[in-house]
Amino acid sequence: MRLTVLAAASALALILAACSQGGETVEAPAEPPAPAAVLAGVDLTQPLSLVGTEPFWGIRLTGQELVYSGVDRPEQRAPQPALTVQGTVATLQTRSATGTVFDLTLTATECSDGMSDRTYPLTAMVKVGDESLMGCAATTAAIQSAGESGPVS
To answer: What DSSP element (H or E) covers 95?
Structure first.
């Protein structure tokens, strides 16, 4: 009987030791969050929309890809690298699968699209291949929630 009790006690000790070793989790120290890329109060890590008129065009930056479209323009997609921020300017360059180069420059200056009473926090200068386009930009969420006039913020 004494042997059975010792065997049971040894088995219980092994189980408890295994549970205490595997049950405890040591959390690694949390990495500090990456500094947000902010330009004119706009978080550039969020999806962005760039819009222009005459000719009408638009670019969506989803975080993963750039999607370009416009009146009488075929939609084009390209990978989206991170925007590079230097002072009051953010830039990005990418190339579509068909070889079209997109150069984007966002500047922290208030912008009007010229067709509405909206004002945007960023001015957009875009080169699509050899064509230069001017427009405005803000987060997609801000544009979708803005009214027909006033600031897009």
So the answer is: strand 89-95
